[in-house]
Structures are given as C-alpha cells and as structure tokens.
Write a structure and sequence with these properties.
The protein has 26 helices and five strands. By secondary structure, it is mainly alpha-helical. Strands 2-1-3-5-4 form a five-stranded mixed sheet. α13 crosses α17 and α17 runs antiparallel to α20. The longest helix is centred in the first third of the chain and has 28 residues. The protein starts with 7 loop residues before the first helix and ends with a strand.
Length: 638
C-alpha cells in the first residue's frame, strides 16, 4: 500500500505553510520574544491561506503560493504599522521559556504524527466514510481548475459556499508536491494534528497561565491524550473542515484572553484586529467552530469582568461587566438564530441518559471512551483549584459551557425544547459537541497540573533534598504526562480511526479491487473523459484518484433529469434508443460499475438499479475489471 516516505513532501509543505506566514505576521506586529504569541502562527497562517484562496480567483490568480504570499505581505504591512503604535510584546518572565515551548511542541508533534500515521495505516489509505467522497473530490476539482475558493469547493456538492480552509491547505500540499489526493490528504492531516492543534492549545495555555513553562509542557502532552479530538473527526463523518476549525478555536480564544487586560487605544485596536482575523479564519474552517468560539469567548469575557467587578467594586468595572454581558447576550442570540439548521440536518438522536452524559462530559470521555486515569486526576485537581481560587473561574467557564452543550445534545430527548434551542446550530450532533470537550478541558487539566506542581515545590522547599531530585522529578513528570498518548481514551479512538481507514471486501466506499481500477484510469481513459456510475458505491472518486470528470461528484448532488433517467435505465442501452440519446446529451464516455455496496444506506441503491451490476453488450464494452464487482465499461455506438 505504499511507504510513508511519500507523505513527507505534502506534510512538509503544509507544515511550512502553517508556520511561515503566521510567524511573519506575529514578528511584524508583536515582535519575536513572546512564545505565546508565536504559537498563534499556525492559526494565523490558516486564516491567511483561507482568505488567499477566496480572493485568488477574484483577481485572476490560480491557487498556489503566490496568493498566499500576497495576502501575507499585506497583513504583515498592517501589523508593522500597528506595532509602531502599540509596541512590541515583553519577553516572558521565565528563562528559556521559548526553548521549553518549542521542545514541548516538537515532542507533541512527533507523538501525534506517529500515532495518527499508524492509525491511518498507509499514506494512500482513505477514510471509508461517506462525507469523504465530497472532500476528496473537492481536492480533485480544485487541482483540475486551479481554484480552491469556498464557491468552487461548494460546487463539488452543489452548494453555493462551503468552508474551505482544510481544502485550501490540502490542495497546496498536492499541487506543490505532485502527491496523489489520498497521500496529500493524509500528509496535510498529519500536519494539522501535529502542528496546528498543539500550537493552538499551547497558545491558550500561555494566555491563561502567563506563559509559564510548566503550562506549555503539560498542554503539549495533553493534546495527544484525548479521543474526542482530533481522532473522532477521522472516524465520524469524516469532518475534515471541522477538524481545522476546531483546532483553531483555542488560538482564537487565546487572543480574546490576552486582549481583556490590554490598555490604550493602539493595543486595543491591534488585539481587536487579531481577534477578528482569527475568528474569520475559524469561520472559514467551519461555522460550527466559529459558534463554539463565540460561546467560549463570551464565557471567558463575562466571568473575567464579573470577577473584576466583584473585586474592585468600582462604577467602571460594574458598567463594563453589565455592558459586556448585555452585548454578548445579544450577539449570541442573534448568531445562534442566524445559524439554526433545518430538520433534515438536525435530526441526530441523543445517545444516553442525562446522568451518563454528565459523567462523560465532566471527564471529557464521551462515546464510552474509557477515561485516562492521569487526565481524570488532573481535571479533578483543576476543579479543586478553581474552587479554592475563584479568580481562576475564566479557565473553567468554557469547559462548563462545552459540558452543558454536550449533555443537552447527548442526554435530552430528541424533541426537548432546550435541545432545539441550544444545540440545533451544531445539528444536534453529539459527536460535534463531544469533540469540543478536549479543547477546553485541557486548560482545566493544565491548571490542575500546575496546582500539583506548586504543592510539590512547596513541600520540597521544607525538606533538604539532593540537587538531582528536582531534575529527576521533572523528567519523570514529563514522561508521565506524555503517557496519556497511550491511555485508553485515545487508544480506543485511534483504533476506530484505523478501522475507518482500512480496505476490506466490505469497505463502505472502496474495496482494494475498486481502488485498483481507479488507479488504472489514467492509462485506460483520456483526460477529457466523462465517467458515470453510482456515487453511492465510490465510483465518483474517479475525480479524486484519476482527475477524470464524473457526472455526480457526491451522493447528495443534484443530478439532471437525463442523469436520473440513466441511473434507472442505462442497463437498457442496447434496447432503448432513449438511453443512447441521454448518453449523447450528457456526453458520457465510460461507466464505472462497483456493484451494490452502498456507502450509507443499502436502500439508496434502488435509485441506481439501471447503472449497477451491468453486463457487456453492443454499446457497453468491458475495458477493465478486477475481482467480482469492480468493472470499467466504455460506451460505444451512441
């Protein structure tokens, strides 16, 4: 099935794209001395890429690095002007903080890349889940057209606008390296889980905990230890756009946290623009992620200002709290109203009883994933730390919101009014809300770890210990922290990912035989060939695997009346002249027949009875076959 060496080029391309543009913006706008700010770079880069791919076709540019460079230069120029007015960031208080943060990020990157590569199995494996058809074909279409805008990505499934940050990153990896679409997808995903996600989480830790070195180490380790994110999105859906959007949420939330204590108009303007930039990028990752950011940011801002009002008891602090709460309340109501979804998209059923949902949410172990003992201890320590020092409530507030949303979606009955009110914009999908838990559980667990470390340091200060004791204890602690990567919570989830990415005779999208046929299409069909087949059996992936246009790019497309007729009647091509007429009207050259294995619902195959289980005839010439069900026909004589 291939060697992971083939995924290194797209991985490196996406990694560099994640690191370089955002770093240039941070250095220009804030200087290079703050590791917390530099950790925002991958999220900033993702935003720049998404904006660049949106603008590129509007100014006549094909999608490549040139639009990224142009947008980056523009934003860097603005950042330089803002820095002249607001000044550079001060360095962190701790010595070698930047080095510790870098090493921690590198360790998390290696662990995540290795574990997810093992879960994917091979660089050319694909997730055998129905949403993957549209995502793979969107990359194929973007490569064919040189256009990765949200409008072009939406065209894959007949949608006017589709969140496209993931697609734009992945297309760059494929275009700049020549990697196949499956290899480029896996390379890009490894870069996202090993760079964007941990850097984003560490940026939030730096914002909450004053860039404390221990916080960076703990957070980096914890990003490898949860099954609900990012592993869940490689099995459920698959939800690649949500993956990028959710990975950006902590970084955008970090920008909110650091903005709250800012003083002076120039600093406020710079922080506001940074928040807007990251919020926009989060939206272009996925609107669900933007909604999540909004409710998390509101919880942090309200609790922070409430504590300030209770502590200072000044008119200004009270007015700020009341005004912010009212404004955010209006914004939340308006946004949740605008982003409500219809019944056809929000009919997901709850999983369990409310008590079970609460237990899973509090310990960030949904879907029956076994809690990892160390994570549970750190979360409990974090809860206790907040109880002892309520000024730490802003660290807990987003997690409380995430638990509430998860409990409502997964624990209340399907028609409960509160469920429709609160979680409808997330499609009432417990999986999407389960994936939010680690994003905001990690700061709470990090707080718990800091409290335990502080207690240990106080205890050690009362005793005379050998000089080697503290370095040894630190090394043991780091190893213990990174052991969460092999804990049951994430191990179960990665096992499910491995199953989703495996090729078998009963694979939901493609069997090994069907994949082999698709890979031979470039030799057996001309570049301008138009291929038809049932998209519910994976035939539409001829676009992603071979760059051949297909009549239906996704199972939820809107086929023409002629195509609907062929789906029901193509098998009658030798006896019904109307079939040949429809073939000529559409311009179809080939038919892929992958039998009746359906990607989502066997009952759906009935609509394609005329285009499945075909036999050679006067007009259908067998070109290639492999195994009992994978066949390619050429249409002749029409």
């Amino acid at each position: 099935m291939g060697d992971w060496v083939s995924a290194i080029p797209p991985y490196l391309v996406v990694a560099l794209v994640l690191i370089v543009p955002g770093s240039a913006v941070v250095v220009a706008g804030w200087g290079w001395r703050s590791p917390q700010r530099l950790l925002l770079a991958p999220a900033i880069s993702t935003t720049l890429v998404a904006v660049a791919s949106t603008v590129a076709p509007l100014i006549g540019l094909t999608w490549n690095l040139i639009p990224v460079v142009l947008v980056t230069v523009l934003v860097v120029g603005v950042a330089l002007l803002l820095r002249r007015a607001a000044g550079a960031d001060a360095p962190p208080a701790g010595r070698r903080t930047a080095l510790v943060a870098l090493l921690s990020l590198a360790a998390a990157a290696v662990v995540s890349a290795v574990f997810f590569a093992r879960a994917f199995g091979s660089p050319d494996n694909i997730a055998q889940r129905f949403d993957n058809i549209v995502h793979l074909n969107a990359i194929g279409l973007a490569l064919k057209t040189g256009n990765s805008s949200p409008f072009q990505i939406g065209a894959t499934s007949d949608i006017g606008f589709y969140p496209h940050a993931w697609h734009s990153l992945t297309t760059l990896g494929a275009e700049l390296t020549g990697a196949t679409v499956p290899v480029a997808v896996n390379g890009a995903n490894l870069a996202i889980v090993s760079i964007l996600w941990p850097a984003s989480a560490m940026a939030l830790a730096g914002a909450f905990f004053a860039q404390r070195r221990t916080a960076f180490v703990v957070t980096a380790a914890l990003t490898t230890g949860f099954g609900a994110f990012p592993a869940l999105f490689f099995n459920w859906g698959v939800l690649y756009p949500n993956l990028v959007g959710y990975a950006m949420v902590p970084a955008a939330l970090a920008a909110v946290v650091t903005a709250l204590p800012e003083r002076g108009a120039p600093a406020w303007v710079r922080s506001a623009l940074l928040i807007a930039l990251l919020a926009g990028g989060t939206f272009l990752g996925h609107p669900n992620a933007f909604l999540s950011l909004l409710v998390f940011a509101a919880s942090v801002a309200i609790t922070t200002l409430a504590i300030a009002a209770a502590t200072k008891r000044t008119r200004a602090s009270i007015v700020a709290f009341v005004a912010t709460t009212a404004g955010l309340g209006v914004a939340l109501v308006a946004t949740l109203t605008v982003f409500r979804t219809g019944a056809e998209h929000s009919g997901w059923s709850p999983w369990q009883q409310t008590a079970q949902a609460l237990g899973e949410g509090v310990f960030a172990a949904p879907r029956g994933f076994t809690p990892t003992v160390l994570v549970t201890i750190l979360l409990l320590a974090g809860f206790l730390a907040v109880a002892r020092r309520p000024r730490r409530l802003p660290v807990l507030a987003p997690f409380a919101v995430a638990v509430l949303l998860f409990v409502v979606a997964s624990g209340l009955r399907i028609d409960h009014p509160l469920r429709q009110l609160l979680t409808n914009p997330w499609y009432n999908d417990s999986n999407r809300l389960a994936a939010l838990l680690p994003l905001v559980a990690i700061p709470v667990a990090t707080l718990g770890a800091l409290a335990l470390v502080d207690f240990a340091l106080r205890l050690a200060s009362t005793r005379r210990l050998p000089r080697w004791t503290m370095p040894a204890a630190a090394a043991v602690g780091v190893l213990a922290l990174f052991s969460v990567a092999v804990g049951p919570n994430v191990r179960i989830a990665l096992g499910q990912v491995h199953e989703a990415y495996s090729y078998t005779d009963s694979s939901l999208i493609l069997s090994s035989d069907e994949e082999a046929i698709l890979e031979r299409l470039p030799e057996e069909t001309p570049p301008d060939a138009l291929i038809t087949g049932s998209p519910r059996t994976g035939t539409s992936l001829a676009l992603a695997f071979a760059g051949r246009e297909v009549t239906q790019r996704h199972i939820f497309g809107s086929p023409s009346p002629e195509q609907l007729f062929l789906n029901a009647n193509l098998r009658n091509v030798d006896s019904d002249p109307a079939v040949c007429q429809a073939v000529d009207d559409i311009g179809i050259d080939y038919v892929l027949d992958f039998g009746r294995q359906d990607v989502i619902d066997p009952a759906g195959a009935a609509a394609y009875d005329g285009i499945q289980d075909l036999s050679p005839g006067t007009h259908l010439k067998l070109v290639d076959s492999q195994g009992p069900n994978a066949r390619l026909f050429r249409i002749e004589g029409c």
